[in-house]
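To: structure desk
From: M.T.
Subject: fold request, one chain
Message: Could you run this one when you get a chance? Sequence is below, nothing fancy, just the single chain.
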Amino acid sequence: MGLLLKIILFGVAVYGLWKTFSRWKGLFDTFVGRRPPAEPPPPTRPAPPPAPPVEARRSGPIEDVVQCDKCGAYVSARIAKCEQCGHPLPQGRSSG
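Reply: Done. Structure tokens follow.
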């Protein structure tokens, strides 16, 4: 049993020395020298080509709307009768 105990203690001592050496070596390299090589910066992408100018939106003319007396729907003031219920709208009626 004495030999097995000596082998185990020898293994524990070697493990302790290995960890101590690697720790001290890491601290020495950090403060004194041999730093890991820095990664080169990633290549930059070229700038995208300029976008073509946005043309002004050409929206149609804004229409006047009136509310139907019967169903309450809003319809164009230019039509003669309501599109939903068919109720005739008075001509010349303005919104408001």
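Reply (cont.): Residues 21 and 92 are 99 Å apart (CA to CA). Let me know if you need anything else for the meeting.
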